[in-house]
């Protein structure tokens, strides 16, 4: 671990993360008292956060997972392109109270799209919880209903976040890139 830390600057310790996730779980439990919560996790960044969060929630929880797929599509005008977002599998949310779980919210475009889509598919309610919130990079008017930590760093790894795959197993959040040799040895 010492060799790995030379490439990384720890931003959030394991203890800080555990404390904040416990606080979020307590607040969510209070807000959903007497209800069944349908937790929908956006993979891959949210998987560790979701695991810790739902273990602390004290109301019944149904867990579902979605993985975004982005496709660039050429627009009708020359040189114009748009990004299409597809999610698989599509969660069954009709008539449900949904908690959308994101590891990291940056621009907010994907989260906003998912919230609108779930409401259009008949969700009773949709709230967003983000482990990390990069508000300075927001491109739409979106605020998570719950968030763990505000950050400004351009690139972070650990606690489910990676580069694109290395570093997800780190129990803390750090800025920088993990050393591939030490990350592979874990």
Could you explain the architecture of this structure?
This is Hypoxanthine phosphoribosyltransferase. InterPro entries: HGPRT, PRTase-like, PRTase_dom. It catalyses: GMP + diphosphate = guanine + 5-phospho-alpha-D-ribose 1-diphosphate; IMP + diphosphate = hypoxanthine + 5-phospho-alpha-D-ribose 1-diphosphate. Keywords: Glycosyltransferase, Transferase. It holds the Pfam family Pribosyltran. By secondary structure, the protein is an alpha/beta fold. The protein has a domain of 127 residues: 3-Layer(aba) Sandwich (Rossmann fold), CATH 3.40.50. It is 27% helix and 33% strand. The chain has a 6-stranded mixed sheet. β2, α3 and β3 form a beta-alpha-beta unit. α2 crosses α3. The protein is globular. It starts with a helix and ends with a helix.
Topology of this structure?
Layout: H1 2-5, E1 8-12, H2 14-31, E2 37-42, H3 47-56, E3 61-74, E4 81-88, E5 97-105, H4 109-120, E6 125-133, E7 146-150, E8 156-157, E9 173-176, H5 180-185
Parallel strand pairs: 2-3, 2-5, 5-6, 6-7
Antiparallel strand pairs: 1-9, 3-4, 8-9
Helix pairs in contact: 2-3
């Amino acid at each position: 671990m010492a060799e790995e830390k030379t490439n990384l600057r720890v931003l959030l310790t394991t203890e800080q993360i555990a404390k904040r996730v416990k606080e979020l779980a307590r607040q969510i439990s209070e807000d959903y008292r007497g209800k069944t919560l349908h937790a929908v996790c956006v993979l891959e960044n949210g998987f560790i956060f979701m695991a810790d969060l739902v273990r602390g929630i004290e109301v019944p929880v149904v867990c579902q997972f979605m993985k975004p797929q982005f496709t660039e599509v050429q627009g009708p005008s020359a040189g114009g392109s748009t990004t299409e977002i597809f999610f698989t599998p599509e969660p069954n949310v009709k008539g449900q109270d949904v908690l959308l779980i994101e590891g990291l919210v940056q621009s907010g475009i994907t989260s906003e799209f998912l919230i609108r889509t779930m409401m259009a598919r008949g969700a009773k309610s949709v709230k967003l919880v983000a482990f990390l919130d990069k508000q300075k990079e927001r491109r739409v008017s979106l605020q998570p209903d719950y968030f763990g930590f505000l950050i400004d760093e351009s690139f972070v790894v650990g606690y489910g976040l990676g580069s694109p795959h290395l570093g997800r197993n780190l129990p803390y959040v750090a800025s920088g890139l993990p050393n591939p040799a030490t990350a592979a040895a874990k």
